[in-house]
Amino acid sequence: MAQKISDFRKLSKKFLRNGTAILGIALLSFFIVIAIFAPFIAGENGDNPYQIPRVSWSSKPIAPTAEHPFGVIGGRDIFYGVIWGTRTAFQLGLIIASCAAVIGILIGSVSAYFGGWVDEVLMRIVDIFMSIPFLVAAIILTTILGKGLDKVMMALIVFGWMSTARLIRGNILQAREEQYVLAAKALGQKNFIIIVKHIIPNTIFPVVVQMSMRIGSYVITAAGLSFLGIGAEPGYADWGTILSYSRNWMTMLDQSWFAIVFPGTAMVLFVLAWNLVGDALRDIFDPRLRN
Amino acid sequence: MDKKPLLKVQDLKTYFHTDDGLVKAVDGVSFEVYPGETLGIVGESGCGKSVTSLSVMRLLDEKGEIAGGSITFNGEDVLAIPEEKMMKIRGNDMAMIFQEPMTALNPVFTIGYQIIEAILLHQKVSSEEARAMAIDMLRKVGIPEPEKRVDEYPHELSGGMRQRAMIAMSLSCNPKILFADEPTTALDVTIQAQILELMLSLQKEYGMSIVMITHDLGVIAELAERVAVMYAGRIVEYADVVTLFKKPKHPYTWGLMNAIPKIDDEKEILYNIKGVVPDPLSFPEGCRFNTRCPLAKDKCFTDVPPLEEFEKDHFVACFRINELEEMIKSEREGELSAK
Amino acid sequence: MTAYIIRRLLLLPIIIIGVTLIIFSMVWSLGPDRLLASYIKSPEALKTPDAEERLIRKYGLDDPMPVQYFKWLGNVVKGDWGYSMVGKDGVLQSILQRFPYTLELAIYAFIPIIIVAIWLGVISAVKHNQFADQFIRVFALIGWSLPDFVFGLLLLWIFYSKLGWFPPGMVSTQFDLAMRESSWHTVTHMITFDALINGRLDIFVDALRHMALPILTLAYLWWAYLLRITRSSMLEVLRKDYIRTARAKGVPERIVIKKHAKKNAMIPVLTVAGASVIGLLGGTVFVETIFSRTGMGRFLADAASLLDYWSIIGGALFYSFILIIGNLIIDVSYALVDPRIRLN
């Protein structure tokens, strides 16, 4: 146990010495602060805080002013949308990633635990789900489920669990051959206990790394669906929704550039933050890179 | 031995700048290699013996740095040779073979290609001539059907054959010195003997010097004329092979000798050096063997014992040479009483 | 090896049935009422009171699911993929008409993607932790985090709205008219190639100009990904023993990298490069929407916003087939390339 704690200390020291990791953590903290203090930064729309307040009835974009620092598009205040959109992004990313991970862990460990035909069938189902391109699958399912962020989340979860399942299955199969597992088996421990006590703790880290890396891509995909007009409802405080207003101004983007630049920057930095953290975690926990 | 040494290493210091700190992998190592002889460098893994040879060939990776000392090869200061000229020396005058013939040969090129490449780099011959030389070399190292094998990929050969191919490659330009880094460790015991025999006969034929780096005293006994025993980045004992095996003077050497079983010995208990090699990030003060040495006291923990000539051509780095005799005696007695 | 290919081929029908089943069951879950809407071309048909029920029965929309599935699958095999509101034609016909445009874009994007990504990735690995490496890594990190629709919109804003250099669309109007003339030979359905066949260099250049921004958008995304793979693969190979062997025999560093390291490092890169072709074919939804190109991706986006179910389903089927067949080709050729796998 003491060994583990000193290992952990060593690793966290390594993490903190990694410049990009620091940047990732800093960016992430920045977004967390914005998400928490959104009502104080951008105010709160009384009826529904996740609905961007309408400040104009003209559809013409209004360039940034003191009152609307990020400008107005489709009559909506972009600043409000970007700030409250941070909450939306966290919700999207965390909910999708954790649900997909739970499903993936369940299916992957069942597959590895039972082996045989159960494994065969489950892995072929994984193959089948992976044979539909992720974005395309998300597009069909959201059009069929209808508009709304909950539907988007559902669609991305349904088609987002497979890589975790493969990862956890592979890791369990590999861990089963490890010395400490063989030792536990030799001592007569039950298979199930071995998995819960020895294997899962040793295979969970890659899943955490994968989760943090995928949060970015989930947020991007959800925003993309909103951009296509099949994601969040119009006026919802969501970065992709603000971007989608530009679709009406595609040939005159110099009149609505702020509707791209501000939510776009928020999105890039948000995704970058998760990617940096995930990357640093992977560098630290990848046994091949550790010596 | 009054001949001029082919290779003279003096007070070599090779340090690695790792993420966790400075590793003094080689810290003040000196030895000579004379033309046509075999020097054994022996020690446990991590004692710096491979790093020593990589330093001499200037093949350290980006984290490694030669922090001090001098290397003279063939009358030239190796550390002052420009890199372009060093490339001409590597493979031509100095060659190297490694422990793992599987990973040391490039998997995507045929063994023929890899030998021919070495020949073409250093000799003015056409590629057809180089190919003929490569086949010839493969035959010399005892690979059957060399005309066919020359076009095979490393994974198509057995481990022993791969090591033979590796030797063929390293000797293809008739080097003056060959560094053999644990050349037999990864092989089966029967193959090991064949490879050693091959190296001996090739040495007779070509007259090159060999630096045999190994943890295996059996290999040393078979091949080497003189031996340097390394421990934790330093040479602790340096003598000709007979003296070393007959009269080891350093407690570590003595421990090593007694850790291997001998058939003609009635001794039943093998001596075991207590403890483990210290962490290279924090070698102990004084004698680096002091954490495991049964004789260590006082000075051993504060001063570094110099490598001194104990008798002619027999160098030992230990403050307690005289007490070793008594220790050996008491160990023997303990053994007897255990019987 | 042969056993592996046979196994992959045997699994193919299972995968295809699974994919079609998933796709169909999503449509089926809409229920007969909503599905009926996609069969009726005018509201007149629903005038009579029992018309809806009658039509549902007529199209078999209340049949049990397996019956409907096999009926649909039969039609798909026959080439009847339903009517596309977006394409104003059969779904399959609409897709096949648009696919060459997407293929053309993918072909042109692929070349700069591969060359630049490998070039940068190798530099980055060789100059490990030096300035060039840090710079390339930042470049890759940004590309990795930049959604293609954001990057595309930014490019459109700067290079079209502000500078007017690269217009959206496929080809300028006057050339579009020229291509509709009877003297124009349509062979490949890809504008640049047809322009060359017709000897119209001006149209060729114009079409390329329209492709520049879409290519850059797609390329940056893939550069970021591929160069990371190249870099890490190269770094791994450079640590290998055989690289030290090559140096030990006096091979100049330039050749160590160009030949000994690169040839080994390229094996994983090529698999990903193969995957990038599939990705390019399937990843044009946003690029084609933003740059008004009438390819497959735009078709799917339009179908989605019009809730044109049969077009969406058709698009998904088509994309899945590309992915399945593409992956099969990659896996088999990967096995053929690596001498170590080839033997076992």
What does this molecule look like?
The complex is a heterotrimer of chains A (291), B (339) and C (344). Chain A is mostly helical. Chain A has one domain (13-38, 88-285): MetI-like (MetI-like fold, Orthogonal Bundle). Chain A has helices at residues 2-17, 19-36, 38-42, 78-114, 116-130, 134-145, 149-158, 162-175, 179-186, 191-227, 239-245, 258-285; strands at 72-73, 76-77. Chain A has a two-stranded antiparallel ribbon. Chain B has two domains: 7-224, Rossmann fold; 230-338, no CATH class. In chain B, helix 4 (111-122) packs across helix 5 (127-140), helix 5 packs across helix 7 and helix 7 runs parallel beside helix 8. The longest helix of chain B is centred in the middle third of the chain and has 18 residues, at 189-206. The model of chain B has no long low-confidence stretch (mean pLDDT 85). Chain C is mostly helical. Chain C has a domain at 97-279: MetI-like fold (Orthogonal Bundle). Chain C is globular, with a radius of gyration of 25 Å. The chains are: A mainly alpha (291), B alpha/beta (339), C mainly alpha (344). The B-C interface holds B 54, 57, 59, 61-62, 87-92, 95-96, 98, 100, 103-109, 114, 117-118, 121-122, 153, 155-156, 166, 169-170 and C 128-129, 239-242, 244-252, 260, 263-264, 339-340, 343.
Based on the model shown, name its key terms.
heterotrimer, A: 291 residues, mainly alpha, MetI-like fold, two-stranded antiparallel ribbon, elongated, B: 339 residues, alpha/beta, Rossmann fold, 2 domains, 8-stranded mixed β-sheet, 4-stranded antiparallel β-sheet, 35% helix, 23% strand
- Computed over alpha carbons, the radius of gyration of chain A is 22 Å
- CATH level 3 topology of chain A: MetI-like fold
N-to-C CA distance of chain C: 6 Å
User: Considering DSSP H and I runs of 4 or more, what fraction of the residues of chain C is helical?
Assistant: over 70%
**Strands side by side in the biggest sheet of chain C:** 1-2
Uncertain residue ranges of chain A: none
CATH superfamily grouping of chain A: MetI-like
* Strand content bin of chain A: under 5%
Number of domains of chain A: 1
